[in-house]
Structures are given as C-alpha cells and as structure tokens.
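Note to self: keep these together.
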Amino acid sequence: MEEKIVPDFDIPINRLGTDAEKFDSRKRIFGNESVQPLWVADMDLPSPPFLQEALIERIKHPCFGYTEQSNRLKNAVQWWMQDEHDLIIDHDSILFSPSVVTSFNNAIAAFTKCGDGIAVFSPIYGPFYFAIKNHNRTLVDIPLLLNEGQYLINFNTFEKECIAGNIRLLLFCNPQNPSGRVWKKQELEQLAVICKKHNVIIVSDEIHSDIIYPENKHTSILSIKDATSNSIVAHSIGKTFNTSALNASFVLIHNNDMRVQFRQIAERSHTSDINLLGKIAMEVLFSTHGQTYKHALISYLAENQKVIIARLHKISGIEPMVAESTFLSWINFNGTGLSHTEIMNKLINDAGLGLGGGLFYGPTGNGWFRLNFAVAKSKLKEALDKMISLDIMRCLQNYCARQFFVF
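Structure:
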C-alpha cells in the first residue's frame, strides 16, 4: 500500500472534544462559545498522515522512558535547514527546546540583566511583551513604518536607541508576525551591521519561515555574515506541520560562548530537551516527505489568501495586507471609523467571528485584526461571507458625516 503524504485539505475537521485551545477557550476569550474561531495560530488543516503513522507505530511499544537526542534527530534538523533554508549548521550549533516562547525567554535570562533594554519592532508577537515584562527588562518599542501596505523597519530610530545605549537585545520575528512580511536580505544585512556595531544580540523567531509564498525567499539571520557571532535562531515544527502541542522546537547558535550561556539557563530551568513524540515527529517531518507536504500546504494556503484579498478588497473601510508568508491575514479596519472595541464587538456579536485583536501585538495594532486562513476553503468562504454581511458601509458613512460636522 502506497504511503499517503498529503491529506485532503478541503475536508473540514471537527476539533471539538480535543481540548483545542482555539475552540474550547471561546467563552473565555470572546465571551461567546459559538463564534467561528480564526484567531490562535494553529491550523484547522490535518497534519501529514505519515506523521500519524509514525507516532502510532512508536506508541505500540510499551516503554516510554527517558530518551537521548540522537544523531538521527540532529541530522534531520541539519538537512532541513540546508535544503530548505540554505543554512549550513553543525551538530554542536543545534540545541532543543519545548517551544520558541521557551527559547526567547531563556535567551532573555541568559544574555540580559534586570533593567536592560530589549527592543521590538511593533506590531509584534504579543508574548515578546510578556517576556520582557516578566523578566523585569525595559521595553524599547520601535514601531514599524507602514508604506503602501507594507511594513518597513525604522533603522534610524533603532540606531539612535542603540547609540544611546538603551538596547542590549532585539527580539525579532523573521518573517514578521502578525503581518507575514518576509524581510529581504538587504534589510537583514542593514540590521545586522547596526546590531554588531552596538553589541546588540539578535534573537530571531523564525517559526513561520517554512511557509513562504512564491516570489519571496526567507533568509535566516544566521546566514548574514555580520550576524553569525551575535544571533540565535528559534524554530519549530509547530506551524508548518500543525504540531504545536507536541512541544518540539530547536535553537541554532553558532557562537560557542553564547551557546554555553544559553544551555546553562535552559538546563537550570530543565528546558533543554524535548519529549519522545516530539523527537519522532521532528525526525519524520524533516524529510523529503515533509517537503512534499509543505509544498502542497503552501499552494493551498496561497489560494486561500487569494480568496481573502479578492473578497475583502471590495469592502470600503477594510484593507487586508498581503502576507508574503504565514497563514495569517493582517487586516486594517481603521477606515471604518469605528473604535477597536466597536469593531471587535461587531465581529463577535454581529458576524459571529473570533479574530485575533490587533492590540495583542502592541499599540500600533489598534484597529487591526488577524485572521487565520489555515482552514478548509469552504470554512474560509463561510467566514468571509459573515464579514461581508457586516454593515461596514453604513459605519463608514456615519463616520464621514461626523467628520463633516466637526469641520
């Protein structure tokens, strides 16, 4: 019997009764347990069938004791990073971690002290903010520049903060989350020069780097010459293969001294290893079968995004940003004239939709919402129909009328 590699993404999956956070926390998050949830960044699309088969086969064995970090596992990571990301790494540079969030928290503990400045480019992944606060570090929030529907790094402001000595470490999303912006090599080179010049460590969250749409190319920060000695990369199988609950991620650090510092912190918190099933999953997924699945997934997600862009561009007051990566659509509702809370209430109560609120990504996310489009196409169209049904035009007209009377 031929091994099945790619599942049918068009078949909707019922995740109720599986303790899925996206579904089972709806009452807590949205105050409504019946909204269609399109918020947290995991997919309502199936993981590879060959992964399920490998996990089932291992579970048949009756012992689940302590496990090693095998050479096979490191070989799989090494091969994947070279074949998929043109990044050559050796075994010593590879460390393992339960999650990317664990990794950047450990990096903060390893490379900074209380009061040190940590920079972010906002809007940015919300747990960056939580990590900085929880470690009693100083947040240096540098808003991205919005230019013709695309985010750009404000290098001038960033370097001024570096010159002032306010920044010790940069928490960086590559690709950018929530917008899906794929940073160009030239941008990363400019960033690396500034950071090297001012002794700023780069912690690059590259968890979305395997889902890149045509005409775009991901460049790992560790492939940039001026960043190899002061950067670490955190990556995972979680997003690409919908396996976040397996708690299997890895960290890449070329600099030996930094690697020793990081490992000491990880071992102190007992977070320097991953579980048995996570190891099996990573080894199985970082393979030619994993590549086949990934490429089919990207094709499906690209078509889903086309549906979003085509349909939402017709609604006045709403502007979706074109994602160059990820399965997340970053949508600007500010043109409606409604407040962030009013938009959220309309989405939840009138449309029955649970999107990710933009303020989770910092103050610059005001009026923006993130929609997860990693769902069966029929479910996506259902959600878009609900959004289109909102009386946004009336809201926009009322807003314009208010502006007229103000003047």
